[in-house]
Amino acid sequence: MRFHFPGFGILCVCFSLLSIVESQAEDSLALNVPIMAYNCFTCHGDRGISQGAAPSLHKLPAKYIRQTLLEYRADRRPGTIMPRISKGFSPQELNALANYIAQLP
Ligand code: HEC
Q1: Could you tell me which residue ranges the Cytochrome c domain spans (predicted)?
Q2: How far is the CA of 90 from the centre of ligand 1 (A)?
Q3: Which one of 39, 44, 56, 78 has the minimum C-beta count within 10 Å?
Q4: Which residues, in sequence order, are CB contacts of 45 under 8 Å at separation 6+?
Q5: How many whole angstroms separate alpha carbon 36 and alpha carbon 89?
Q6: Which residue puts its alpha carbon closest to atom 36 of ligand 1?
Q7: Which of 16-25, 44-53, 78-87 has the lowest mean pLDDT?
Q8: Is residue 67 part of a domain?
Q9: What's the number of domains the chain is made of?
Q10: 69 within domain boundaries
Q11: Ligand 1 centre from 24 Cα, in Å?
């Protein structure tokens, strides 16, 4: 009887696609930062100028934003929502977000 496993081909295609996506992820980080930051502006307001319950991020130093985000991510800073949100990003992405948000006019 011939061994037949059609799923294997599909698996290979998926893995090769995944590696393409991963290799592009690092390159396009700079391009994706403004898009990632829209997540943050839903609560923190456009350009980080808060209109609601979330604190304003506008004009905060990049170093402070980065430090705070890394602390939320490591559960070293208490919060309602930020510990969860920060875990959805890599430290590199949080760093890029901090730099991006801090330089907004
Ligand atoms: C669902 C609403 C929401 C979203 C989305 C959100 N935040 Fe927050 N953020 C908060 C709240 C509320 C706090 C206050 C701490 C807490 O309760 O978690 C906060 C606190 C912070 C602080 C600390 C500010 C300070 O002065 O101490 C930073 C920095 C921050 N957020 C950055 C971000 C970034 C960057 C993103 C996007 C990746 C983001 N937040 C997405 C609601 C949000």
Answers
A1: 23-105
A2: 16
A3: 78
A4: 51, 52, 54, 56, 58
A5: 9
A6: 40
A7: 16-25
A8: yes
A9: 1
A10: yes
A11: 28
Give the CATH number, domain containing residue 83. Answer: 1.10.760.10
Q: Taken in order 102, 105, 48, 37, is the CA torsion positive or negative?
A: negative
pLDDT tens digits for range 5-17: 565 554 444 445 4
43 token code pair: 């609560």
Ligand 1, residues at Cβ distance < 6 Å: 39-40, 42-44, 53-55, 57, 65, 68-69, 79-82, 85, 97
Helices marked H in the chain — which ranges? 6-27, 29-44, 62-73, 82-86, 91-102
Whole-number pLDDT of residue 49: 98
- The alpha carbon of 91 and the centre of ligand 1 are apart by a number of angstroms equal to 15
pLDDT band at 4 (very low <50, low <70, confident <90, very high): low
With respect to residue 1, please indicate whether it lies within any of the assigned structural domains.
no
Does the predicted model carry a pTM greater than 0.85? Answer: no
